[in-house]
Amino acid sequence: PGDRFQYGPVPFQAFGEAMRRKLSVKKESVMDYLERRIFEPIGLKVGRWTMQEGQPNMPSGAFLTAREWAKFGQFLKNGGRWNGKQVVSAKLLAELTNGSKANPNYGLTFWLNRSNSGRADVAENEGRLRQILGDRPSNTTEMSRRGFGPDVPSDAYMAAGAGNQRLYIIPSLDLIIVRQGRLTQFDDREFLLRMLGKDTVPGANGSK
User: Is there a domain that residue 95 lies in?
Assistant: First the structure.
């Protein structure tokens, strides 16, 4: 453990099953638990979950509007506080943005911008990563090896969904960005640089 990074759905599936077993003692479902502990306290409305055998399919997640995703991003940026109340421990949430030796640019379900060295011990599932991070082959390894690049704040992190759905959080800029839609030739670094008004993007603001 910690020597090699491989992205895939298995950790999410194992986590979902562990939650189901733990909560079954209390006769509570995973969805009811999440509703009680997080969604209801912050007023977040889930459109629908992808389901498998009567349980939420953790790797596939849920469908939310852009406004609801932004609300969740604000909750994370605030360190688990909402309307003055600590809903989730800030220390626990901080674990989401701790990378590993094998891949400093991936925490617990979030992509990070901790290292631009180009080095990461990555054993990737090419097809799965291309689905999540974009259709260009270069995108499948660039996030692991270079993050968003040095022109984006190092505290930036991202939740990446299938079809290039994105939730970007940049605490140092007090910024939440939600992207919904499909675009096959999509690049996270280029998108963020454009959103941040950087002139280093080829073609942006008339530059070449």
Answer: yes
